[in-house]
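for the writeup, i need someone to sanity check this before i put it in the appendix. the sequnce is what the collaborator sent (i think, or maybe the updated version? ugh). structure was predicted straight from it, no edits. if anything looks off just tell me and ill rerun, i have time this weekend
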Amino acid sequence: MTATTEIANATGPDLRTLLPGPSVLAVLRTRTARTAVEMAAPLKAGGITVLEVTTTVPDAAGVIRELAGDPELLVGAGTVTTTAQLDEVLAAGSRFVVSPGLDEDVLVAGLAAGVPTVPGVLTPTEVIRARALGAGTIKLFPADTVGIAHLRALQSVFPDTGFIPTGGVDATSIAGWLGAGPVAVGVGSVLEKTYVDHGAAALEALAAELVAHLEKH
């Protein structure tokens, strides 16, 4: 058995098993809990049903608990950087966990709890370590600082790993990122800005525009 096979066999709970296919993951990093809750309906109406509530949102656990009550939504927690945060979001009903970096304690504890846990990485070395610890799906963050060619290079040498580029992805760049073959793309700040500046109808339209790109890939 090769080392690569051993790593693949060690993969723990994987977010790919929960996703319906290539997806847009809405990263809710809002200034208020109410804004995060209110954004869920227009996102869902526009076709985005995978939501990541970051721990930077006030009362993030409460937001997760409220949104998780909708069976049509797949609700997870983002920006989880400590095991204390991990315990809190899992108790609130988070179905997956995302970290901005490779925190080994969070990754190991999340997978041990039976929850898909997605660490953040930038380098091949970090990918190798994350895979060795059981990660099957990995967040490329901040994606816009390294670009689509970087994701393609990582995909070429780690073809059995799922990647989620996050950071700077919007309606103008999503097609290029999807063309590199990720399992999902994370879209964040543009969603809140659209909702706050233009309202629910504009957010629903943006969600539909983003989702339409999935059908082309």
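Confidence is low (pLDDT under 50) at residues 1-9. Residues 64 and 170 are 24 Å apart (CA to CA).
thx in advance!!
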